[in-house]
């Protein structure tokens, strides 16, 4: 019984810690979309970099960096395309392909 309670409390504490991170991600993701729709690509790039700092292995954040860099005219950080991107899902593969296609249009 004591072990079960300890495990339950441990899992609950992880879920409590994860929620603020997920909420921050969602807030920044919404902000990124708003800024892109407003053609404020330099600020969108800053938001994309914040998203990447929350989850460096997230291919969506990496794609956001590529798109905002391209549209703002700000040089793309070299590490974005030189480091491997995640390949676990079709979305990851799609995001990398979109980034490559976006940069080909340079």
Question: Key features?
Answer:
single chain; 106 residues; mainly alpha; 0% strand
CA-based shape: globular
Number of strands: 0
The low-confidence runs, each spanning 5 or more residues with pLDDT under 50, are: none
- Which structural class is indicated by helix and strand composition? mainly alpha
Describe what you observe in this structure.
This protein is mainly alpha-helical. Helices cover 79% and strands 0% of the residues. It is built from 5 helices and no strands. The chain has helices spanning 2-37, 41-54, 59-72, 78-82, 90-104. α1 (2-37) runs antiparallel to α2 (41-54), α2 (41-54) packs antiparallel against α3 and α3 packs parallel to α5 (90-104). The longest helix has 36 residues, at 2-37. The termini are far apart.
Brief write-up:
Helix content is 79%, strand content 0%. It is built from 5 helices and no strands.
Chart the SSEs and their pairings:
Elements: H1 2-37, H2 41-54, H3 59-72, H4 78-82, H5 90-104
């Amino acid at each position: 019984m004591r072990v079960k309670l300890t495990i339950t409390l441990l899992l609950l504490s992880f879920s409590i810690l994860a929620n603020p991170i997920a909420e921050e991600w969602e807030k920044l993701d919404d902000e990124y979309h708003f800024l892109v729709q407003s053609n404020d690509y330099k600020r969108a790039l800053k938001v994309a970099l914040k998203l990447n700092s929350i989850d460096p292995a997230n291919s969506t954040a990496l794609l956001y960096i590529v798109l905002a860099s391209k549209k703002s005219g700000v040089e793309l950080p070299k590490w974005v395309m030189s480091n491997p991107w995640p390949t676990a899902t079709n979305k990851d593969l799609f995001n990398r392909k979109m980034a490559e296609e976006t940069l080909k249009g340079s």
